Amino acid sequence: MPRRYDPDRRQRIIDAAIRVVGQKGLAGLSHRTVAAEADVPLGSTTYHFTTLDDLMVAALRQANEGFAQLVAARGALTDPHTDLAAELAALMGEWLAGDRTGVELEYELYLAALRRPPLRPVAAEWAKDLADLLAPRTDPTTARALVALMDGICLQVLLTDVPYDEGYAREALGRLIPPASP
Amino acid sequence: MPRRYDPDRRQRIIDAAIRVVGQKGLAGLSHRTVAAEADVPLGSTTYHFTTLDDLMVAALRQANEGFAQLVAARGALTDPHTDLAAELAALMGEWLAGDRTGVELEYELYLAALRRPPLRPVAAEWAKDLADLLAPRTDPTTARALVALMDGICLQVLLTDVPYDEGYAREALGRLIPPASP
DNA sequence: ATCCCATGTGTACGAGCGTACATATCGGAG
DNA sequence: CTCCGATATGTACGCTCGTACACATGGGAT
């Protein structure tokens, strides 16, 4: 029995959990599947994350950070001279492009919060962080509505097979933003 | 072994499934839990619904009909002389009031479609039906956006502990509706 | 240098699951 | 009246799951 002293094991388990959820869905997440994916014994996953909820919280938190990085990379979002609606629509386009593993994972964990109280604060935090980021460009209420509409549009794209229409998103988001008072 | 000839058994199983999901969540749904709730033997649930997906489709379809009735009861939605945004906001208020078992069930099944392809058409149908109903009051694109925003607002209310704010919903929905051209 | 405890490992148990299937029943078609 | 196929029932198999626990190990505090 080799392999001892594995300092980043906890992190590797979280990464494995994210891969598992991305590939097999939240229903396919178990201590065992994660252990297999992370190539660690079963006891190791139960040691670091007593409850599956614990593991989900860690995974959702990490997924949130990934999204936050995507947002941060798009610095134009906070630049008051850009078209906010267009920037948000483009952000969604970028997020929804390519394989949607990341988006699906984010939403699946996000929505799991509906039934799993421990996830609720993390899910709420995601919405709040994005709204807080947007608030300076408009106002807190509008920011909340923008986040809600983005959620709804993403959901429609994920649940129906309608492809993402950036022009439509930009138009709809734009209507939510009250005209500037120069 | 009494109890033979039970004509509405299929329907009773669907009702039981809805109660199970409402009480224990989608994760608590199994052939056995439904059988227990409907007070029928295990073999009966597997006979009428070979796959759990089959059962979920039936349950989601029924939940959709329940929502459709709620909408139909609010005839003012199709009356062009009413304030559409206000009507929609009031509809959401009514739906989210009281115990949220119905809403949670609807969304949980709705969102399960993310990973269960058989559910997708039923979920898409829900969004489409509502959008089709709203389209005559504005235009198809605006109707889609209204549905998306409603989805997003409901989700925010369900996932965070922020109470439903009808005034906010009305204001946001109103902004999506382009001014009438008299 | 010593020792302790956080960390890592292997195994076992009982419960619940989907599924399959042999058998029983009986409404309604003929 | 007869009979057939849709419906109903009970049981069993093999699997995965969460959980618990006894034991091994070695990094770092002392």
UniProtKB/TrEMBL annotation, chains A, B:
Occurrences of domain HTH tetR-type (ranges): 7-67
Keyword DNA-binding listed: yes
PANTHER family: HTH-TYPE TRANSCRIPTIONAL REGULATOR RUTR, TRANSCRIPTIONAL REGULATORY PROTEIN (PROBABLY DEOR-FAMILY)-RELATED
InterPro entries xref list: Homeodomain-like_sf (IPR009057), HTH-type_TetR-like_transc_reg (IPR050109), HTH_TetR (IPR001647), Tet_transcr_reg_TetR-rel_C_sf (IPR036271), TetR_C_31 (IPR041583)
Keyword Nucleotide-binding attached: no
Any matching Pfam family: TetR_N
UniProtKB keywords: DNA-binding
Annotated GO MF terms: DNA-binding transcription factor activity; transcription cis-regulatory region binding
SUPFAM superfamilies documented for this protein: Homeodomain-like (SSF46689), Tetracyclin repressor-like, C-terminal domain (SSF48498)
DNA-binding region range list: 30-49
Organism: Streptomyces aurantiogriseus
Protein name: EbrA repressor
